[in-house]
């Protein structure tokens, strides 16, 4: 019994403390060092921040180069699958264009009226002109859904700026380096956006699910939204301008599920904008 | 000329595990097959466990530590977490190496399963309790399952390659 315990202790000691000829560091020393790093990260230690920014700059570029062949491979598969659906898509698009042309006239009138009313009530926030950025890395992690962009503080990017694709909201900048930045996607589990659902103007919170769709949370249980109800940002909290289209309700994918307008797994170029008060 | 080619090939095979490890952490190696749902596996776990068990001098602990730091940066995690997780996997492999006289793929894979379960649990605990990051546990379970199943395949490939690189 005692010899069994001794063997266990010897094996553990040898595993964690012994260094072979080619090993520079013992396992225990490195484990202690990594624990120290985790705690310093948790305390937002300044040195760790600078270390992270320094590593980010090189690693993002390197990672983009290494991911390039895989990205191109995925793009080619998407290209071929889209190519085979061209005819059907063309017919559908023609029908949509006719419908949209009719709706456009109505919207033009409503947009002008809305602008006038917003100026009266003082809610005249607008988005800046925007910085176009290329997506360097768009791989989904198990824990974080984020993208790396090729613009950083050098180009005027700041933390909290909104990320759009074709004027649809896709995320928000959470980390800024000198030439790169990271944006959290609206599909991330930690993403919570104040939204308004039309028709009905129901205020709620849109949360990410970690998949390619979102979910409406914190609305009263008895409210059931119909499919295709449009979800816009509500502007509550001041992080987003009100009225940015995000997606539409799709109860088939999930109860109160939201199908995003943008395909978050296919982002190539995005527009980064900040909120500013418009000049009267 | 021929000698140069052989030397280059030998060098490449010798450093292959290290190159593959760095490639997988920088590329964040997750294979998604949309028709199956979410099929993902953690290649760095397999590489680190196998090589720490069979030939610990092939990839140094320090280099694995740096690979963890790079993985944190690529995925946007707080610095140090992946390094700590990778080092715990080395710990399991080193312990198994010390108590085993005759290596056996089935025993190895059982310890590998325990080590990745432990590593992912610690990872999830740190991320959720210390850094308040929300986690999709189903995705992690799928990832652990496929990582475990694919260990057999990669162990076969590495077994085949090992004599060539030494």
What is the averaged pLDDT score of chain B? Answer: 81
CATH class call of the largest domain in chain A: Mainly Beta
Overall shape of chain B: it is globular
Low-confidence stretches of chain A: none
User: Percent of residues of chain B in helical segments?
Assistant: over 70%
Domain unit count of chain A:
3
Kindly identify the CATH topology of chain B.
Arp2/3 complex 21 kDa subunit ARPC3
Secondary-structure-derived class of chain A = alpha+beta
Count of DSSP-assigned helices of chain A: 4
Alpha carbon gyration radius of chain B: 16 Å
Largest sheet of chain A: 6 strands, antiparallel, barrel
Mean pLDDT of chain A: 78
What does this structure look like?
- The complex is a heterodimer of chains A (280) and B (166).
- By secondary structure, chain A is of the alpha+beta class.
- Chain A folds into three domains: 57 residues, no CATH class; 105 residues, Rod shape-determining protein MreC, domain 1 (Thrombin, subunit H), CATH 2.40.10; 75 residues, Beta Barrel (Thrombin, subunit H).
- In chain A, 38% of the residues lie in helices and 26% in strands.
- In chain A, the strands form three sheets. Chain A has a six-stranded antiparallel barrel. Chain A has a six-stranded antiparallel barrel with strand order 7-8-9-12-11-10. Chain A has a two-stranded antiparallel ribbon with strand order 1-14.
- The longest helix of chain A has 38 residues.
- Chain A starts with a helix and ends with a strand.
- Chain B is built from seven helices and no strands.
- About 5% of the residues of chain B have low confidence.
- Classes of the chains: A alpha+beta (280), B mainly alpha (166).
- Chains A and B meet through helix 1, helix 2 and helix 3 of A and helix 2, helix 4, helix 5, helix 6 and helix 7 of B.
Detail the topology: elements first, then pairings:
The complex is a heterodimer of chains A (280) and B (166).
Chain A: H1 2-17, H2 27-42, H3 46-83, H4 86-121, E1 125-127, E2 131-137, E3 146-149, E4 162-165, E5 168-176, E6 181-185, E7 192-198, E8 202-208, E9 213-217, E10 230-233, E11 245-249, E12 257-260, E13 269-273, E14 275-277
Chain B: H1 2-14, H2 16-27, H3 43-54, H4 61-75, H5 81-99, H6 105-130, H7 137-165
Helix pairs in contact in B: 1-7, 2-3, 2-4, 3-5, 3-7, 4-5, 5-6, 6-7
